[in-house]
Amino acid sequence: MIVLKKVTKQYAAVTAVRNVDLSIPPGSIFGIIGKSGAGKSTLLRVMSLLEPHNGGEVFYGQDRVDHLKGKELLSRRRKMGMIFQNFNLLGSRNVAANISFPLEIAGSHKKDIHARVEELLELVDIQDKHKARLHELSGGQKQRVAIARALAANPEVLFCDEATSSLDPQTTRSILALIRDLHKKLKLTVVLVTHQMEVIQEICEEVAVLENGELAEQGPVKSVFNNPRTEAARRLLYA
Ligand code: ADP
Fold first, then answer.
1. Quick one: average pLDDT of 144-169?
2. Residue 159's domain spans which residues?
3. Cα angle, residue 128 at apex, residues 180 and 88 outer, rounded to 5°
4. Which atom of ligand 1 has the smallest separation from the CA of 43?
């Protein structure tokens, strides 16, 4: 269970996230939806320990993790993978070398890296792209590379920041199907930030609605979408 208690994040005069309480069940596919600027990415960066907050607490299970530093922070971060809208791949490296990058940094042996990369390529179904350069790939294939890289160190949680927002509808569906498969196969918890309702409907079990940095409501997708309790959720869903 990932639990946020009264988390606040401020950038100069902007309060990007304000007093957010959130619980994400282990093994779920959890969506965070809101308009552009609602604070979704900020919340994800705080939750994934990429950025410090200005108040509140973050727990993974019983462990408080938001004050971790140095080696402890690194080892906690190894249990998380992250993918982004713009893929964040390294243009100077081919597909296999992008996927192997986190393993190289972690100091894994060459032979182990090679075997793991093959396994990951198969997992995301781009076995034949091993040596391809990034400019030879479609957006969907690039996101598959990014997913393989994010899973390289066997994380427990996959964070997805608008991961399908630059893809066409058909490719979006195939990437969401892949994420759903991986969630089942690897028992991954998936936390997904998006402004697209159809993404939440397609793949998520639970959803949290964020507006102006505040949590409006959280619940099962069907009940929030069919019967929103708050004005903020109604505004977002029916605007
Ligand atoms: P969303 O992901 O929902 O679009 P963000 O978390 O990116 O929202 O942004 C929330 C608010 O915080 C916005 O007003 C944005 O301009 C501001 N913000 C986000 N990141 C930074 C930053 N690094 N520096 C200053 N302001 C930021």
1. 97
2. 26-41+79-238
3. 60
4. 6
